[in-house]
Structures are given as C-alpha cells and as structure tokens.
Write a structure and sequence with these properties.
Blueprint lengths: L4 H9 L4 H11 L6 H9 L3 H16 L2 E5 L1 E4 L4 E2 L10 E2 L11 H9 L8 E4 L9 H14 L4 E4 L2 H10 L4 H11 L3 E2 L9 H7 L6 H13 L3 E8 L5 H18 L2 E8 L15 H14 L5 E2 L3 H4 L1 H7 L6 E4 L22 H10 L3 E5 L5 E4 L5 H5 L6
Helix pairs in contact: 1-2, 1-4, 3-11, 3-12, 4-12, 5-6, 6-8, 7-8, 7-10, 8-10, 10-11
Bound molecules: ligand V47 and iron/sulfur cluster (SF4).
Length: 392
C-alpha cells in the first residue's frame, strides 16, 4: 500500500537480472515496455517483483481509489449459433428448449424492477440467437431509454454485433450508428478471448476473428462511444499469445483512445468442452493482472471481475495492478456460475462491496460507466452503511 518511488527504486536496484531491472526502470520513468519484456515478466520474473511494479503503477495512476458501480445484467438468451469450446452457458439452436429466450416485455420487466433504485448501468450480453436480430434490439434499446433515459446501456459483444450487422446486411459503421441512435451507449469487452488465429481455431473457430472484433470497437470509438476489452486467459494459450492479444489492443487504443478498461477473464472449466484443461493458479492470475497493468499503459483502468474470480482473489488483485471491481450485479448473470465460479449467485450490496474494498485498505469510489465519480466512501462508517436501506 502506498508504495513510494524510493521503495520501488530499491526493489528495482536489488533485481539481479539486468533485463528485468531495465523493465523496472522503464516503469518508474513511465516508458512503454515492449512485447519481449512483457513475455520476460511472465516467464522469468518473480511474482513479488512484477506485483510491486504493477502496484506502483496502479498507485501512481489512481492512488488507493478502487472503482465499482451499481449495475445489473440482462442476458436475453443463452441460445447460440456458435459453439465455443470454453462456454458452459450456451445451448445450440437445435437444443433451444433447454435454454431461455426473453421477450422484450420480460426484459422491460427486469428494467422496471429497478425503478427507484440507484443503479446506473444495465449490461446486456448473451448468446447469438438467429431470431433476435438488430431490429429486435433496436426496439429493446428504445424502450429502455424511453422508460429510464439516465440508465447507461452497455451492451452486446462484438460477436453479437458482427452477427446482427451481417444478418441485417449493414456495414459495421451503419449498424453501430443504428444501435447508437436507438440508445446504445457503450460496448462491453466480451468475445475477444485470445486474438491469435491458431488458438481461436481451437476454442472458438466460427465467430468473429481478431480484425473483425477490433474493427467493431474502432467504429464504436469513431462514433464517440467507449468500450472495454477482455482477454480469456489460462487455457491453451501461451504467454506470447497473451502479450500479442494485449499488443493488438494497445495499438488500437493508441489510434482511438476509446477503451476504458482492460479485463483479464480467468478461464473456468466446469461444464464445457474444455473441462480437461486445468484452471490457472492464483499466482498465475495475479501475474496476469500485474503484467496487464504494466503493458497496457494507455488503458486507464484494469478490472477484476469478481463474479468470475471470487471475492477473495478479487481483493488480492487490488495489490497487483487492479483498480476496478465492476459492480453489485444483483445475481443477474449466469455465465460464470455455470462455468464453475465459486460465486453461484453473484450479488453484493453497495455496503458489502465497500466493506470488501476497505478491508484491504483501499478507497471505495462509486463510478458511472464512464468513470465519472458518483461517491467516495472513504469516510463512510461501515456499520451505519450495513444497516441503511440506501446501501443494501
Ligand atoms: O467473451 C465465457 C467469457 C465473456 C467462460 O465489459 C468465460 O465490463 C471464463 O465479456 N470461463 C463475456 N470466461 C463476458 C464479458 C464481460 C464480463 C464482465 C464485464 C465486462 C465489461 C465484460 O465471458 C466471453 C468469454 O470470454 N467466458 N465462458 C468460461 N468458461
Ligand atoms: Fe455463444 Fe458467446 Fe458462448 Fe461463444 S461464448 S458459444 S458466442 S454465448
């Protein structure tokens, strides 16, 4: 906590390996690290060294601030035309009777359930259903905005968008503009997985490729929308694949500046076609967050998605480069519980999320989707919060 430049200088000067020492010096001087240097951190550096550098960088960017938001998810369907090997959530179209398909009215009832409650964001993400087309979602977006104009709609992975636009015979630019005009505010980061073509071939061969994913985010940024980016790690990829993935995102960010947050997602192996692949260790998880913070120098935020990682590991990431924990969620997503996350009913009240962050001596700050600060809970009394309906 509160690592000083003097302390980090000492850690760096004690590093015996000259190349790692150079990475440390670059971090202190705010210089960009290269592809090979990030791979070296993964392969050779101890977790303590990489973690200290990432923590120093995190604190020099955000101090102790740790962001979260009050949000809920809508998952319109888990029926999907694709069959990604790591996915525990989807049901193929032929077995759609085993899945769910929500109508616009059902989804509006979910939105209405939050009337009068201080949520700021709805995150819409699901399978790729052949009958839920662009115009179905235009209607949904318009109805949500008409009902609650202030609610930020973060919706649809590039995978869903690519399918919707192609089916509607629209260019990415036209399709994105149609959804933006209907009320879509920003894009979540899903569907990126690992960009390398050979890995993609093995884990998600039929969905949008790397260039398609990047182009969809580029077009969103050109329209003034913001977006996030994810990386599914800890399965069959190697360290170079991870760094290649991050480098492609870092280059697009140099070009547009439209990304807010990078979100490494730990592969969970329950109930999918990759159940034979062991999950990564907590050390590997922390290393991945730390290298992300160091390499993704133009991404303002690194997020640990607590429903995927579990709350204790999520707390730990706050010392390894992470400055955002996502939101309250309210048990509205099934993607991760179905893949075996310890969070079987992901839901945290604001009081619980604030306590989780304070317990590890960080400063909880509620934000909106675009990181405008809504409230700093640094001086709030936890006992008073725990018994107040405002925070539960
Ligand atoms: O792309 C699916 C991942 C993603 C598994 O932008 C799995 O704020 C691990 O992108 N093990 C979708 N991961 C979710 C997503 C997301 C989540 C939270 C916040 C944001 C944001 C975006 O979920 C998919 C895929 O990479 N996923 N199955 C699994 N077995
Ligand atoms: Fe479909 Fe997404 Fe699951 Fe792939 S990860 S099968 S695109 S729901």
């Amino acid at each position: 906590m509160d690592m000083s430049t003097e302390q980090i200088r000492e850690i760096v000067s004690n590093q015996q390996d000259a190349k790692l020492r150079r990475i440390g010096e670059k971090t202190i001087n705010r210089e960009r690290i290269f592809f090979d240097e990030a791979v070296l951190l993964f392969e050779k550096a101890g977790l303590a060294f990489t973690g200290a550098l990432a923590n120093y960088k995190r604190e020099s960017m955000h101090g102790n601030k740790t962001y979260f938001n009050r949000n809920f998810h809508i998952e319109p369907t888990n029926v999907c035309v694709f069959s990604c090997a790591f996915c525990s959530y989807s049901r193929i179209y032929a077995h759609r009777d085993e899945g769910w398909e929500l109508s616009i009215d059902q989804m509006m009832n979910m939105v209405k359930k939050y009337d009068g409650k201080p949520v700021t964001e709805v995150h819409i993400v699901g399978g790729v259903h052949p009958k839920m087309n662009l115009y179905f979602f235009v209607e949904l977006l318009q109805k949500i905005k008409a009902h609650r104009p202030g609610l930020h709609i973060k919706g649809f992975t590039a995978v869903e968008l690519d399918y919707m636009f192609r089916k509607a015979k629209l260019s990415v630019e036209e399709g994105m503009k149609t959804l933006h005009d209907a009320g879509l505010d920003s894009l979540p980061g899903g569907g990126a997985e690992i960009f390398d073509a050979e890995i993609r071939m093995q884990i998600c061969e039929d969905k949008v490729n790397a260039d398609g994913w990047l182009d969809i985010h580029r077009q969103a940024h050109l329209l003034g929308m913001h977006s996030n980016a994810t990386m599914l790690y800890g399965h069959i990829e190697n360290y170079s694949h991870r760094v290649d993935h991050m480098e492609r995102l870092r280059s697009l960010q140099d070009e547009t500046g439209g990304f807010n947050t990078f979100i490494p997602l730990k592969f969970r192996n329950k109930g999918n076609d990759m159940s034979h692949v062991a999950e990564s260790s907590v050390i590997e998880d922390m290393k991945t967050y730390a290298v992300s913070r160091l390499f993704m120098d133009n991404f303002p935020h690194i997020k640990a998605y607590w429903p995927m990682l579990g709350r204790q590991s999520a707390q730990l990431t706050l010392s390894f480069g992470v400055n955002d924990l996502d939101g309250t969620i309210d048990d509205s997503t099934k993607i991760y519980s179905m893949a075996g996350s310890e969070e079987q009913h992901p839901s945290l009240s604001t009081a619980e999320l604030v306590a989780l962050i304070k317990q590890v001596k960080r400063e909880p700050v509620e934000r909106d989707t675009l990181y405008k600060e809504i409230k700093n809970y640094k001086d709030m009394d936890l006992t008073a919060m725990a018994s107040s309906p405002l925070y539960n």
